[in-house]
Amino acid sequence: GTRVLIVGGGLAGVRTAVELRERGHEGPITLLGAEPHEPYDRPPLSKAVLLGEAEGDEPLVPTADLAAAGVTVLTGRRAVGLRPADREVDTGAGPLPWDRLVLATGADPLPLPGPAGGAPGSGDVHTLRTVEDARALRAVLEARRSLAIIGAGWIGAEVATAARRAGCPVTVLEAGSQPLAGTLPAEVAAPMRAWYAEIGADLRTDARVTGIGPDGVVLADGTAVAAGAVLVGIGARAATAWTAGSGLPLGEDGTVTVDSALRAGLPDIWAAGDCAAHPSARYGRRMAVQHWDDALRAAATVAAGVLGEPVEHDPVPYFWSEQFGRMLQWVGAPGPGDRLLYRGDPADPTRTVLWLDERDVPTAVLTVDRPRDLAQARRAVERRTPVDPDRAADPGVPLKAA
Ligand code: FAD
């Protein structure tokens, strides 16, 4: 039968394997993963695992189920080269053949740029992507060491929350002028500054880090921030460097350039999850979403394509984050001219913010502890149905089409 090789044992990889079997693929399926674990879930790594409430390596799909589905899982083995003409992937332990290849290698945390990258030995510097990373950081929390977090993004906010819960002194250094700079519009992100203060984390914005020394972090203005440990949370880059020289088209950010059905630019190769960027007809641009829900949906798209029934991958982006004791959920992508609509009092501790286009169609929604609003708004965003702004602004009225 047709041999499918999936490179990358994360969410996108394991879900592709499961979907292929469920949709009737009968040939061999091999799932290759560099980590010594079977695929596990990453979101708990910055939440429950840091607090010792979960171990973090619980398999995403029970081992017995993968075996029963006839999926060969090769762990602790890294792809190091791609030879498309020979239809082989090289690994440290020899080549693996394929008829259809799925790239699902995810992303690696970005190091600090330049000499500030923190030379080995210059302090206790962490990033957070794997279960080992999470356990190393957990040890810092258990020892209640002071923690400097570089980047007030999603990871920074979640780790700050856990570290304060564990009783660590926390300083968060953000190069932008507000938390989540570059991710959320200023109006919406600015109030989040207060959330850091609320838990007793010292958030310093416009703080440009120039180096990490043995005693902590050094800023461009010469200030030194003492810290027993440092977490760098400034984003992630697609883990595709191993395909260099293969002719596989990559974007400047390292993502695999796929088409709307997630086909990479070479025959019989697909890519899904954090390592890929797809063209969105919905948003008129290429998108590297790098969130859980997109990896899940992309796996289904790829499985359909591998089986010769290509479908379009153009979902409305969705993600959640648990920070400061709050559940944040986001759906959509606002356009440049869209206007903000607060549902209820913007000062409320729970809140829903909608972005409306010129026809009053919601293009994006952010909710804080309002899961019902999220579910209702998600439908409106997906279906592009206009809402009545006056009614949408009233939190007592369910969100639905005008
Ligand atoms: P990954 O999960 O990264 O899996 C890729 C796998 O491929 C890895 O195991 C890697 O080791 C392996 N690999 C890489 N290179 C090779 C190679 N050359 N050969 C073999 N194997 C290789 N999203 C949300 O929406 N909400 C959240 O709350 C949330 N929390 C998160 C918290 C953390 C700490 C992290 C790191 C991510 C979080 N995410 C969250 C994002 C979400 O987990 C990712 O979008 C998702 O894991 C992407 O799945 P993936 O399969 O594409 O990549």
Automatic annotation (TrEMBL):
Q: Name one Pfam family in it.
A: Reductase_C
Chain segments carrying region Disordered: 378-402
Q: Which InterPro entries match?
A: FAD-oxidoreductase/Apoptosis, FAD/NAD-bd_sf, FAD/NAD-binding_dom, FAD/NAD-linked_Rdtase_dimer_sf, Reductase_C
Instruction: Name a GO molecular-function annotation.
Output: oxidoreductase activity, acting on NAD(P)H
Domain Reductase C-terminal positions: 318-402
- Compositional bias (Basic and acidic residues) spans? 378-393
Q: Which UniProt keywords are present, listed alphabetically? A: FAD, Flavoprotein, Oxidoreductase
**Highest taxon of the source?**
Bacteria
GO CC annotation terms, alphabetical: cytoplasm
What region holds the FAD/NAD(P)-binding domain? 3-296
| Co-factor(s) | FAD
Q: What is this protein called?
A: NAD(P)/FAD-dependent oxidoreductase
Q: What is the lineage of its organism?
A: Bacteria, Bacillati, Actinomycetota, Actinomycetes, Kitasatosporales
